[in-house]
Amino acid sequence: MRVRVTFRVNNRGGLVPFHHQYLISEVFRDILQRESKDDLKDYPFFSFSGIKGQTRLSKAGLHYNSRRVTIVISSPNADFVEHLVGAIFRNKEIQLGALNLTPEMAEEELPVTLHRETKFICISPIVTSDDFHNPEHKLFIEPSSNDFSDQIYDATITRMTEFGIDTDAIPEVHKFQLIPDEDYLDKLRASNKKFSRIYPVYYQGEQLEARGYTFPFTLFAAPEIQDFIFTCGLGTCCSMGFGMLDLVNSDPTERTVPYKSAESLVST
């Protein structure tokens, strides 16, 4: 399930760092710690997007000039999504950097049918390793290499198994290949732009770092695997704000329906 939460911006022009997934992660973590039972306080099977809205760039970061912004929250566990979204709505104000927000509306994205070949874009960076204390975990891996695809596959199968999915029962589960859009990567290289960076990550209250990648790609995998990563994120650190995907050439706002009213979410 994917739910799009719309927030009213209380201080238009409020500043947020360019790479702000860790800020959202800490806010969600604090909300879950305060408002959840033990089995949901550190629930790992979800992902979320960055803050989407009209921005003005400065050296300090992003200034949000729109009256409203959105964050997409996704998980294969619909009960968890309802719990987190409800907990968000019980907070009249949410502070992300210097941006002050009030939750206003929630919409559900309609399910999509995914096949063995799907073209994705990243709406938050992909992280291949969460071995934070291994100095090699931040090393650059060429996205077109088998090593990159293999690490993503291993992380995905591990998370699916931990979620409770019998991956051995999935036909041709080992037929998995991630192929980046090389034309896109070549254009970035030619213009000296980056598709891979070191991002701040908060893990168990400690600020760490991870290498993330952002580029369009085609994924060849079983539909069951495609469905899982579309709702739970790709790679590692997904509950910390990484690995969220969307479909290439698709406007998700065209496939949304009302979710639950703010009043019913607050009383959830």
UniProtKB/TrEMBL annotation:
It holds the Pfam family Cas_Cas6_C. NCBIfam families: cas_cas6. Belongs to the CRISPR-associated protein Cas6/Cse3/CasE family. This is CRISPR-associated endoribonuclease Cas6. Residues 115-247 form the CRISPR associated protein Cas6 C-terminal domain. Keywords: Antiviral defense, RNA-binding. It comes from Marinoscillum luteum. InterPro entries: Cas_Cas6_C (IPR049435), CRISPR-assoc_prot_Cas6 (IPR010156), CRISPR-assoc_prot_Cas6_N_sf (IPR045747).
